[in-house]
Amino acid sequence: MNSTASTVGLAGEWDEWLAANGERIADLRRAALTPQPSGEDIESQKAYQAALFDSGWLSRGWAVEYGGSGGDAVLRAAVYDLLGQNGFPVPTTVNVVEVLAPALMKYAPHLAARYLPGLISGREAWCQGFSEPNAGSDLASLRTKAVRDGGEWVINGQKTWSTRAFGSDRCVVLVRTGSQESRHRGLSMMLVDSDAPGVSLRPIDEMSGTQHFGEIFFEDVRVGDDRVIGEIDQGWAVAQHALQWERGMFGWIRQAMLFTVLRKLAAETVIDRQAQFGAAYQDVAALRARSFATIEALVAGASSGPQVSIDKLLLSQAERSVQDVVVAHLPVAVDDGREDWAERLHDFVHSRTATIYGGSAEIQRTIVADQVLELRGVRS
């Protein structure tokens, strides 16, 4: 199924719907784009997501048993592209849906049937508990531990740099159930309620003026066997499955918005750095082509494996190059009086983290060199 054809097929329906609902949705969109503390931001994102879901847009591509209206991830990609290309960014809460929902459907269908309707509809927002203070890019060295106690697991430890952690309703947590020496072979994935006794969430203040990331602390948190995603000590496979969806679908969502940023800049400003603008456009085009290929492979049941690191590298490059060309024409160091100054400032500062979050560029290049190009052991 061609992504462009899918978007064109939905365009007429979108125009008719927007004429009737545009003002209401535009207000929710503005609230979602306004930089604000994490708690307020996540509520704005949920309201925006719920409105688009109730209108029938974000229900597409999800099976009926999960609260959707049918279709697959290619249809979801077409909807995300349509929204982004029309200046209506996909709610940031949807990013986590695209990472975690496929993992639950494959590895924990009982949890998917129970909880995904709330997550997909925007009634709930979840976060990922993966990285730790001493286990970021080397995730297999994590130390948050779950110990068996009767018919439950008791979790102790800390997670950090968890996107939208503060204000989230639940967290999918990667914990160690084996020995420290077992590394990725002794990890398990579990679903934990944010209001469970012993769970503490703290936002992390950022220079962008927001609290995009947060910390999660677990102190004797009890989780039942029914909250385990996949098999005990097999959480690494679940995490890798989720990672492929994150690389492909998140990159696809972002490319639509980055193209919109470039089009808006060209419409409102005289482009005097055409080579830089063209290079940024090429970066986004490469991201678009690569991320959609990953989505198609995942829908077909294929695994892109370590090649998804290429998607992440292309995303990092596109985010930075687009914001670089925007700032070259519309500097953000001083408030210029434009209505979108705070948003532009946030987007530029946040783009600086693109080569770090979700796996640093250095780590991704190493994965590509070792596992894709098979250069391990090659000496210059």
Short structural description:
The protein is of the alpha+beta class and 380 residues long. The protein is built from ten helices and eight strands. The protein has helices at residues 3-33, 38-54, 73-85, 92-107, 109-121, 235-268, 274-299, 308-329, 341-351, 361-372; strands at residues 126-129, 145-149, 152-163, 170-176, 187-193, 199-203, 213-224, 228-229.
What does this structure look like?
The protein has helices spanning 3-33, 38-54, 73-85, 92-107, 109-121, 235-268, 274-299, 308-329, 341-351, 361-372, and strands at 126-129, 145-149, 152-163, 170-176, 187-193, 199-203, 213-224, 228-229. The chain is of the alpha+beta class and 380 residues long. The chain has ten helices and eight strands. Strands 1-4-5-8 form a four-stranded mixed beta sheet. Strands 2-3-7-6 form a four-stranded antiparallel beta sheet, with no helix packed on it.
Helix-strand pattern: HHHHHEEEEEEEEHHHHH
Which spans have pLDDT < 50 for at least 5 consecutive residues? 1-6
Give the count of helical stretches: 10
Question: What count of structural domains?
Answer: 3
What would you give as the CATH superfamily of the largest domain?
Answer: Butyryl-CoA Dehydrogenase, subunit A, domain 3
Number of E-state strands: 8
**What Rg do the Cα atoms give?**
21 Å
Q: What is the terminal-to-terminal distance?
A: 43 Å
Lateral arrangement of strands in the main beta sheet: 1-4-5-8
Query: In CATH terms, what is the architecture of the largest domain?
Result: Up-down Bundle
Percent strand equals: 5-15%
The largest β sheet comes out as: 4 strands, mixed
Mean pLDDT: 90
* CATH fold-level topology of the largest domain: Butyryl-CoA Dehydrogenase, subunit A, domain 3
Class of secondary structure makeup = alpha+beta
The geometry reads as globular
- CATH class of the largest domain equals Mainly Alpha
